Hints:
The protein is an alpha+beta fold. It has five helices and 17 strands.
Amino acid sequence: MELKAYKMDGLGNDFVIIDRRKDDVNLSKEEIIKIGNRNNIGFDQIIFIEKETKGAFPITIYNPDGIEVGACGNGSRCIAFLISKENNQNLIKLSAEKKILQAEILSEKIVKINMGFPEFEDWNKIPLKSGELNPKILELDFLKKEYGNGFCVNVGNPHIVFFVEDCSKIDIKNIGPKIENHNYFPERVNVTFAQVIDDKNIKVNVWERGAGQTKACGTAACATVVAGYQKELTNNNCNIHFKEGRLNIDFNRSDGQIYMTGPVSDIKEIKLKI
Length: 274
């Protein structure tokens, strides 16, 4: 079987996009894993666009390990751009896990999206293993001496952020999986090591659960600004720097929501052989 799909990326964070609005396409976990292999097509996430409901386009997101996830910031911006090209509208509504994501095409390939409210007060909403763990000051024994405490926040998926002097020196391929699969995190966790350049600029090194080290991660950028602002290390509005560019994250003080702005790639049509 051959399927029509799209390939897009945001700052190198890449996605396979399948449109299910007209054709009922179902892929097994094994088929998703096969497509996600970098020796095949490869992706950081595969995203399905569902039929429009109440003015919003639902999206369903899977990591390369075939596990469904609740949010993908860069992927959502790519989907919004793709749909805007179809209907020639600058305002697009998506929905993911019952949350409405409002996106705006600001200029050619620059997309802003509202990622909603972060959760960092309630351990059960991260989620963490138990209420004895403090999401804002989380100690992992094998990291405490060198990197201190992590800040946990859910922005549609769970994240932990550590602030370090030089994030490029972190051996994230070694340490990332250990944190991701730590028993404190019943749904595993995304990991960010963040380096504050100044109060409005942060450099990051990211490990995504089920995907590994990624060139960029929108929800990690959101989590980093929330953590930096709550820890009084940064402003509430920051540029997050990745290898291939930057995202602007505004943890808005007036409404408490997160707004992400950044570039998306061209839309490339591809064929998937299943």
